[in-house]
Amino acid sequence: MASATILNTSPLQEPMNDLHISEKNRIPKSKADSYSSKIDDLSLPLSSADGLVKKPFARPLDSALSVPRPPLTSEQQKKYDDLLKVVSSWTEVPETSAKGATKSAITDSERMFLTRECLLRYLRATKWVKGDAEARLMATLVWRREYGVEKLTADYISNEHETGKQVITGYDVNGRPCHYLLPSRQNTARSDKQIQHLVFMLERVIDLMVPGQDTLALLINFAETKSGQGATVGQGRQTLYILQNHYPERLGRALVTNVPFMIWGFFKLITPFIDPLTREKLKFNEDMAQHVPPSQLLKQNGGEVEFEYDHSIYWPALIKLAETKRLACQARWEKAGKYVGESEDYLRGGSEESLFQARPEADKVNGLAS
Fold first, then answer.
1. Mean pLDDT of the chain
2. Average of pLDDT values for 128-152?
3. What Cα–Cα distance (Å) separates residue 327 from each residue in 98, 178, 331, 333?
């Protein structure tokens, strides 16, 4: 499904030319290792200078600057430490959301999902109410099992993607991966699989995030969209529920262009279901080149990139890139001891060291790491 579906997040960060950020906020390149050499082997483009583009861009431009979050207050740090202690103690997760559902052991992939930044995203989304954040985190683990997020395979999703109605390529001025939705390329009848497609692609865009960045840029272009190609109100509400409850704080900016009259009606109908902070992210008909470097912005969205969607080339390249980055994160997590609350900057190969490799054993025993 290529519809206008938006994620809950914190206030919009402005374009790079309005920021006064020091050189230390420049997006770091991942540390050189066997995984970075595997990415090099994919021969991915870097900018419009590479000519006709058929694969995802390998990384942000060197000019990309992250927007640092303010340090935690002492009260926020206390709530985070308390949440970490609770989450670290989890040993079982229900298989479904049904009352009295059978539980089974928490998996390594679920523990790795519970990073420091993940816990902080849920705390911010619940306005720092620890009990609410704890409940929502467990609900997300249950949903991921029940929905089968990790069982959605590239082969299963492939037919939904054959026309390139969603494209992940390029990074905005703050190093956020760009996720394009192109409703005019809709190629399948309305079904739950369209929402599975969106979830699958959200997982891939998260795989492609770089050190120092945990949000995405959503670019929705309704040019040439015809009646029946957009989402229904029911699909919109279902998708918003998934995104706002299970992918909180993931949106950095949402840029929407060429909105036809019928889609304006759709926005009016779903607006009551969109979180107020999310609504602040919606920007209509702005110059996308203010937010995404022209050399990594598709020409149809006002950039310089000549992009041609060829499923036989783009799809395997995206899947291999995402898989390589995901396996690199897993290897780093395992190397550091498989702790809940690990740093995403470390996992993505950034300059930050593991939060637990140098942590005193007493802290680990007391539940500050597990």
1. 86
2. 98
3. 32, 21, 6, 10
Number of CB atoms found within 10 A of residue 337's CB = 14
Are the beta carbons of 27 and 64 closer than 8 angstroms?
yes
212 in Cβ contact with 350 (< 8 Å):
yes
Residues 183-231: tens digit of each pLDDT: 889 898 888 999 999 999 999 999 999 999 999 999 988 887 666 545 5
Q: What is the pLDDT of residue 270?
A: 58
d(CA 66, CA 230): 33
Q: CA-CA distances (angstroms) from residue 261 to 76, 226, 258, 267, 323? A: 44, 11, 10, 10, 40
End-to-end CA distance of the chain: 39
What per-residue confidence (pLDDT) applies to 226? 65
The answer to whether 171 and 64 have CB atoms below 8 angstroms apart is yes
pLDDT of residue 177: 98
Q: CA–CA separation, 251 vs 231, rounded Å?
A: 20
pLDDT at position 14 is 37
Q: What is the pLDDT of residue 370?
A: 44
CA of 213: how far to CAs of 25, 60, 154, 164, 359, in Å? 11, 11, 25, 25, 24
Please count the CA atoms within 13 angstroms of the CA of 105 that sit on its side-chain side.
3
Express each pLDDT in 256-278 by its tens digit.
888 776 666 666 665 666 677 77
Which among 136, 147, 148 has a CA at the least distance from the CA of 246?
136
Of the candidates 210, 204, 197, the residue with the CA atom closest to the CA atom of residue 179: 204
